[in-house]
Every structure is written in structure tokens, then in C-alpha cells.
Hints:
Elements: E1 8-10, H1 13-20, E2 30-34, E3 48-51, E4 54-60, E5 65-68, E6 71-74, E7 79-83, E8 87-90, E9 100-106, H2 115-119, E10 134-135, H3 138-156, H4 163-188, H5 190-209, H6 221-228, H7 232-243, H8 247-265, H9 270-277, H10 282-293, H11 297-303
Amino acid sequence: MTSVKKPLYIKNIAELVKLSGFPPLEHPVFAIIRIEELRGLPPSFFAPVVFNFYTAGLKNNLSNTVRYGRTTYDFSKGVLGFTAPNQVLEISPDMGSSVTGWMLFFQKEFIKDHPLQKSIDQYGFFDYQVNEALHLSAKEEKIIEGIFECISAEYHDNIDRFSREVILSYLELLLNYSNRFYSRQFITRNQVNKELLTRFETELRNYFKNEDYHNHGLPTVSYFAEALNVSPNYLSDYLRANSAKNTQEHIHLALIDKAKTLLLSSGHSVSEVAYELGFAYPQYFSRLFKQKTGISPREFRVSQN
């Protein structure tokens, strides 16, 4: 039996610098480097690794390709990716040869008491999978490259009482531009988007066609993301960009449609219908039904008779 190698856990940026041989830190909880400086990484990095801090990377000339559904993507052009603390990563050995670009790292302490501390969870792309990276156009790449260069210049300048605020301003600008460019990508990558939308709609329909669906509880965002081989955040952001509704809202609409069918085609009570749909509490079902339709399940049943 092949043993699964335990990921290398790196608790902070200072430890990353020590293990990797990166240049000395200019700031205790923030760092930015050129990817070219990754050359010569120890072999331990080319295996599963867990960073207990945030990362953002702009990469060029990646030689590997990534499968997305039935489509293969070439990552040779500008690719922007993010990770949140405690995600398992695998660094490809070719990161030390032909790849160019930027990597920045920041710990939670760096954004403490800044508006980003509260808003960073709204940037769903920190929890995207590697094959959901942001593919930049030439114009977009120039903008992102410029932001990294500004962050680097500030980072390597003499630290004063304004340094953190200036870097955080650039970081927030980077995240907001990334939000904009991801929205563009959701719309313009038509082949993938149409396929993903079709597959999601099919999975949603098939869920309620299965005779034992009620044994699985309420359908969840995670269930459909796993079925479609994408991350939950990516699926919700994609659906919101293309239909103005996130995954949970689509699930709720499908639940209401199924509920209407059950209310009209069976003699079951409202509570029985709620339990059959997977609700643990009938009150929650009735509240959701009224929220989506404007009337209660009982009022709906009466109105159709």
C-alpha cells in the first residue's frame, strides 16, 4: 500500500523564508518576491505544502496544462491565483526553471484592524481550485503587473508609519481588479461557461428525479460543486455572474418547484412535504416558501384548488 505523504506545514512567513532560502524579510508578516527567486527551492517544496497565511501569485510561462471538465487549458500566459490559510498546495518542479512573475504572502496580522480584515472573505477566489485561476488578457496582465511592482517598490523602501497602509491600499486594489477580471472571465470563456451551466442544470434536475433524494437531506452547494468538480465559491460566483443568482438561490428555486408539485399531487400535509424535501423543521420550509412565492404552502395549495 502506498503511503500518503504528510504535507509540509509552514506556520508563518518567517519560517517560509528560513526553509526556502528566500531573501530576508523587509516586514515581519508580509513578503513579496519575484518567482525567479524560487529557483533552487529544496526538494521538500515539490510535495504537498500548507501555508498558514494568504498568498497571491502572478505567473507566466507555466509549462504544465490543467484539465477543466473535458477541456485542457494551457497556462503559458499570465495566470493569477490566490490561496487562503491552511489550503493544501503542490508546487510543480518547473516553478524553478522557466516560470516568471510575482508571489506575495501576508499573514492575518497584516490586515488586522484594516477594512480588509472584515471584507477579505468576500473575495471568493481565495478558495478557488488551481484550475479556476484567472487567465489575464494582455491589458489586464499589464495592470496587475503594475500593482505588484508598486507593492514591491514600497516593500523594499525604508519602512515608515505609512508603509503598511500604502501596501494594503495596493493589495485592496489588486483584489478589486481581480474581482472585475474574474467577472469578465465568467462571461467571455463561453465554451467552458456553457458546459458548466448545462451540467449544473442537469445535476439540479436529476437530484429531484432520484427516488431516494429525500434520504440525503437538503441539497447543498458543496454537493453540486463536488459533482461538477469545481470549488463551491467558484460555482456560486460563476452562477451569480451569468444568472444573477448564486448556487444557493438556484437550489432554493428548485426546492420550491418540487414543493409545488408535491403540494398539488399528493395528500401529504405541509409538514410531510417539508420532511420529504429534506427539511429538518417544517417552519423553515414554510418560511422559505413564503419568502420565494409571497404566500404560505397552505395558501398555495388552496389557491390551486
